[in-house]
Amino acid sequence: MGRQIANAGIKPYEGPVWVANHYRAIADMAMDRLQNWSWSAETFPAHQINDWPWSEEDFDILVKLHLRYETGPEYPLEVQVPKGEKLGPEHCRIGVSKMRWLENKSVLKVNDRLRLAKIPSEAHEYVVNGRTPLEWFIDRYRVTKDSRSGIVNDPNGWFENPRDLIPAFKRIVHVSVETVRIVASLPPPFAEPSNEQA
User: Fold this and answer.
1) 16 in a domain, yes or no?
2) What's the 3-state SS for 68-90?
3) Residue 151, domain member (yes or no)
4) Is the dihedral of CA 118, 123, 125, 129 positive or negative?
5) Predicted TM-score of the model (pTM)
6) Angle between the N-to-C axes of helices 165-184 and 133-140, in degrees from 0 to 180, rounded to the nearest 10
7) Residue 107: inside a domain, yes or no?
8) How far apart are alpha carbons 67 and 193 in whole angstroms?
9) Is residue 107 a contact partner of residue 101, using CB atoms and an 8 Å limit?
10) What range defines the domain where residue 85 resides?
11) What is the pLDDT of residues 93-144, one digit of tens each?
């Protein structure tokens, strides 16, 4: 994978740290799949891991997913507000309380007036530095105050329109689900020897 990234002209360490972290997470997922195949050093030497046959289409999708996720497609989550209310900026306000998972992590309680539902299980399979992008998102998107400096970190000011919180979350779900799908569809990096060759 490293060789393909280089061939595509992408320099992971020139960008933000999270870009390199995502490359590592994808490689970790691929390695995990590789370990589930039966292979030996004779049939597939370890140094050939960079020759993994990612299709150009899948590789291009991964690059676009991770480098342009902030403007990418949104996963069709269900937005839930109290009965009789219409979604407005006030529903998307983030407070000091951390967002909470409900119903086996298929629903996220953003606050008392907003829930995001129909989050697929695949969204929880993609892990970056020990946590899923969704978990990083939840941890970061809450109002906090530094005890020493008194500086308040308020994510409510990060969006021009408070409702943009919802598309941001939908995009992270889309990236996670698509990454898992692509890695799961990877072919074995070698051909199993036939009986005639054995």
Assistant:
1) no
2) CHHHCCCCCCEEECCCCCCCCHH
3) yes
4) negative
5) 0.69
6) 160
7) yes
8) 38
9) yes
10) 78-162
11) 988 888 999 989 999 999 999 999 999 999 999 888 788 889 988 888 889 8
